[in-house]
Amino acid sequence: MAVPAKRVQYSYDYRGRMVRRQVFSGTYNAGPPSTINWSSTPDTAAGADLIFLYDGWQCVAALKPDQSLFQAYVWGADLSGTMGGAGGVGGLVMFRRVVAGGGTETYFSTYDGNGNVTGLVKGEDAGVSSSAGSVSARYEYGPFGTLLRISGEPVALDNPFRFSTKYHDDTADLMYYGFRYYNPSTGRWLSRDPLEEKGGFNLYGFVYNNPQRYSDPLGLRIYITAPPVGGLDYTRFDDYVLNGFQRIIGDCAKLRKTPIIRQVETGFLFWKKTETRLLGWELDFTDQKLNCVCSPCWKWLKLALGDHLPKKDIYIHRGDELDNASEFRDNIYINENLSFELPTLDASGNVVWENAPFDVVLWHEVIGHGYRDLKHPKDRSNRQGGGGRDPTIVEENNARNCLRLQGVRINDRVPTYYRWKNSLRTCN
Q: Which of 129, 234, 315, 422 lies 20 to 30 A from 292 at CA?
């Protein structure tokens, strides 16, 4: 017995963005042996073979194989109040499709409070104004994103951005979140959480099984977190970290922190119980300002906070040492009361030993070592008098310059790392 079959094939660019989607038809034969004979060319139906263009992580157009326009998308501020700060959730302003005869139709999105598209309102197109302002499509969703009710076909299904304003592949019943695919019918991701158990024991669970309250912008939670000490962070270490970054980037954006709370099982057998614990904080931003004074530093911190970034997690821990800070496999250990001196250069080029500011050391470890993966080259040019320029110190001096631009009196650190000594400290 022959049964029709469908296969969806995706292609990606160097940043992991889906740049092509193709649908192939086949025939399933029960056998024995069971086989599927696939067509060697994609289906000819509209939308079966599409090429996607992006602005950052936001898809702005879908093209046919001949490079002609199939659909176009215009994005604005999303739930974060910025362009892309929440991964585009709630940010689709306009959807335009090409219709028979080569004309276009324009539709504007309406939303609920979680950034789910609930309807499409017809726009005014060239030569057609009678239907402008009318509601052309409506959507209703289940708690995990399943489409319960839809009206206004075919335009309602032609619009691929619906629940969480994410691309929905109706053929595969998958939503594309940028780093992972989500299946609304099962309420689960298809792949493991890149954060692993740090994001919860359910590696395939979708936003703590509570999508009516939470959203996942890109399907990947990458954050800089300051875990609490013994369950209760009486030191307010999280504030030191937040404010340290804020002082360096100035008014480029407003940083904020969100507590990470999980249900954790403790004990064993008859003594097992579940406790609600604060595991740390996720750093995020809002109110981004273009062309700000400290834009070079803001560029790197913005990337580290999750904007167009590689798959990387950075954790900031409160260290025990007051005379050192360190990084090991993207884990940063730093104490807010650190006290040690570093060699700097005054305006005349003289070496002056100054106390290391927490903000600058934080930037050195988190952005220099943690995010940018910069090292201290162990060659002769990176010693005192060697004439080299240590790449991590160059990044540290970017942070020092940002502080100077905001009126803070601070010198640049000497550009080499090794063999600097004074009576209190040795840089070896």
A: 315
